Amino acid sequence: MEDPQTHDSAVLGAGQDSRRRYVDINLARLHQMGIITQDGGRTSAAEDFRIIKRPLLRNALQPGSAAANRNLIVVTSALPGEGKTYCAINLAMSIAMEKDHTVLLVDADVARPSVLKVLGLPAAPGLMDILLTEKVGVSDVILRTNIDTLSLLPAGRNNKHATELLASQAMSALLVEISSRYPDRIVIFDSPPLLLTSEASVLASQMGQVVMVIEAESTTQATVKEALRRLDHCPHINLICNKARSFPAGDYYGYYD
């Protein structure tokens, strides 16, 4: 199987330096933050995300499925602070441990990007730069990491027309490219909150699967229902109950369809 990271480097434009597109993630720091790492051992979060990822992978890779973009998974929430970025990173890290898959983690919260910040990395060109100019391609901005099976696509520059850009033909073409270039690749999008921006529902409408993070004992039922109404056009919606302190040890996350 061709290494997707190597292929991305091979198609850089003339004069591009592939070395600046490599980043070193401090895995010891992430482990201290409670984020899953390959050498982090059998933590409760690692076990929970093993359960969470399995139906997502099954849906993404189901033979003969006609679902469009089924390997594109967006992680969102109704409101800020519910833990969507934390869950998106953990989900990507967990899938990156699989033997037969690679993962591309996309920061699509373009107004308030935080994936690179959580990973301890500086801001970099990314998604918005691809959509704003034809001179920038996916291979120019994808960041290779010290985890062989994990790549990153930063949010890139902020733009007041983000909603229109995410709904554009350029975005549709980009999604086709990143979903079909490698059959073993799972793409995780960290999305804005559903009830604060219009970008989130526009993005979700183009995904094969949606994961909505709900903060336990905080987000109201009415808020969840309103957020789900924004997703009524999405074929596969999954919920993660996050920060549920009343669960027994080892069950910090709950998951259901």
UniProtKB/TrEMBL annotation:
Leader sequence segment: none
A GO CC term attached to the entry: plasma membrane
EC number: 2.7.10.2
InterPro entries: AAA_dom, Bact_polysacc_biosynth/exp, P-loop_NTPase, Wzc-like_C
Catalytic activity: L-tyrosyl-[protein] + ATP = O-phospho-L-tyrosyl-[protein] + ADP + H(+)
Alphabetized UniProt keyword annotations: ATP-binding, Kinase, Nucleotide-binding, Transferase, Tyrosine-protein kinase
Gene Ontology MF terms: protein tyrosine kinase activity
Start and end residues of each AAA domain: 73-229
Top EC group: transferase
Family: Belongs to the CpsD/CapB family.
NCBIfam families from the UniProt entry: pepcterm_TyrKin (TIGR03018)
PANTHER family named in the record: FERRIC ENTEROBACTIN TRANSPORT PROTEIN FEPE, TYROSINE-PROTEIN KINASE
Protein's UniProt name: non-specific protein-tyrosine kinase
Taxonomic source organism: Massilia cavernae
Species lineage: Bacteria, Pseudomonadati, Pseudomonadota, Betaproteobacteria, Burkholderiales
